[in-house]
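Model: Ready when you are.
Researcher: Fold this.
Model:
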Amino acid sequence: MKEFLLTDSDFKQIAAIVYQSCGIVLGEHKREMVYSRLARRIRVLELTTFKQYLTYLDNHKEQEFSDFINALTTNLTSFFREPHHFEYLKSHIVPKLLVSNKSTRRVRIWSAGCSTGEEPYSVAMTLHGLFPADWDVKILATDLDSNVLAKAQSGTYTAANVNGLEPRQLQRWFLKSKDGAQFKVKPELQQGIHFKRLNLLQDWPMKGPFDVIFCRNVVIYFDKETKDQLFTRYYNILSEQGYLLLGHSETIGKEHSEFKNLGKTMYLKVSYGM
C-alpha cells in the first residue's frame, strides 16, 4: 500500500497545473514519477494526502510553487553531451560568424534549459580562443528550475560529474579541491555566461538577436501546439542565418519551412518559404 493517496483526480489536477504553467505534458506513464517526487514535498510539509498537498499549493503559491515545479522537471545533463553539436559549433558556425558579424563584433548564444550548467560551460570551453579579444561574445543560460540554476551558477561539480572531460580540460578550466572530490569552474570561464531563471512559455525579457540557440531535450516534454509556438518564437529572436540545436530525439516538423534541417538535430533559420 502506498504511503500517500494519489487519486486520478489529484493526478489530473497536477498534470493540468504543470501544463498550464510551463507547457510540460505529464501523461499517465509519468504517474509514478509524479508520486515519488511530490511525496518528498508531502513528507517535508507533514501532510498525509496529495489532495491536502494540492490545497496547500493553492493557498501558498508564492512559497511552494517553485518547489513544486522544481520537483517535477527532469534535469539530466553532462559536459559535451551530444558532442557533434560542439564540433559543428567550432568547425562551421564560428567561422561563419567571424565573417557575418565582423561589423558588430557581437555574438550571442542562448542555452535554453541549461539545467546544472554543463551545457553553457561546454559552449564556453568550445568558443575559447576562437574570436579576437575585442569581440563581445556572451552566453545566456536559462532554466525553469531555480535549484539546478543555483548549482549551475556556483559552477561546482563532483568528480563523477566531470568524469567525461579530458585531463587537459580539467586542468585548464577547473580548480580541484584538496581531497579531489569537487571541481569548481574557474572565474575566467564563468565571466562570459549570464544565468537567469526563465519560463520559456512566458514573456522573454531579452531582445536578442541570438546567433545560436541550444534547446536540447526540452521540447520533448511539450505537446505539438506548444512546440510550434516555441519554434516560432525562436525564429523571431534568432539572427538572420541563426542556428537552433535540439536534442537527439527532437525534430522540427516539415511544416516549419522557416528552418532548414542540417541533419543531426541542427537547424538553420531561413526566410519563410525557402
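Researcher: Now this one.
Model:
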Amino acid sequence: MTLKFARLGTAGNEQPAVIAQDADGTEKYFSLTPLTQDIDGGFLASDGIERTRKALNSGELPEISPEGQRIGAPVARPGAVVAIGLNYTAHAAESGATPPEVPVVFLKPTNTIAGPFDAAPIPPSSDKYDWEVELAIVIGREASYLSSVSEAEACIAGYAVANDLSERDYQIPGAAGQWTKGKSLPGSTPLGPWLVPASEIDASNLRLQTLVNGEARQDSNTSDMIFDPATIVHHLSQYMVLEPGDVIITGTPEGVALSGRFPFIQPGDTVELDIEGLGRQRQEYFRAQAGSASGDQSSAAAPAHVNA
C-alpha cells in the first residue's frame, strides 16, 4: 500500500492526513487524528508510518474530503532546515563552481517553510529571486555521529518536494558570500504536497522538473547528485544532531535563472515544481510590501490540489 502523508487546513491549523489507494486504485484521504495531533518528529519517531499502515488495514481511520482545503507543508514546523549547496554536477558547472569534494552545508530558518500552493512573496527590493527544485529528506530518528551510510539510510523517514527560493543579489556578492541572507526570506521554502515514506521511493533515480509560466526551466534526475541522501545524512551527523522531523534539502539541478539563460521571477509569475512520485507544487508570486510583518499571503493561497 503506497502512502502519502499530508496536512490539510489553514496555516497554523493544519490537520494530519494520509492518502491511500483502495482496491480499485482510487486515492482516498483519511484523518490521522486517531493516531496523532500532527505529522511531526514525535509521530515519525514513534513508528508513525507503520502504525498508520496497521490502522488503515484495520479500518480505524475515518475517511475525509480534501475538497476546498489548503494543503500545508507535510511536516509540522521542523526543529531544523539544513540545506546542501552545489550538489548536482551540471548545476555546479552552470554556477561557475568546481564540484565540491565534501557537502556544502548551510541552514535556513524554520520559519521559511510554506505550503506548496501558498502565494509566494518576492522581497520588496529583490531583482534576482530564483527557483530551485530540490529533493527534501525528512528525518525519522535521531542521527548523531553515525558510523555508516547504511545506518544513516535507516534514519530517513521519507521524501518530499522543496523549493529553495534564493535571492542571488543577497546571496552571492562579496568576498565571503552571504548565503544565509539570500536563502532566509519569508516563505522561501515551500514544501510538499506530500511526505512519501522512504521505503516507497528510489531516491537515486527521480526526475525533477521546474516550469515557469508553463515553460521548462529545470529537467534533470537525482542520479546527477554528487552526494546521495544517505551520504548527506551520515556527513551531517558528524557535525550536528539531526532530530526526527528535521528537513534536509539536498541541492538543485541545472536550469536556474542564475545561469543567465532565463529571467528571474517577477510578480505575477507562476512556478511549478515536480519530482517523480512526490507530487507537484505551484506558487503564484507577488511583490511583498516594505514594512509588512512577513509579506505572507498564505491565507489567500489556492485550495488543495487533489491531483497535485
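Researcher: Key takeaway?
Model: Helices lie at 41-45, 48-57, 89-94, 149-153, 168-171, 179-182, 229-237.
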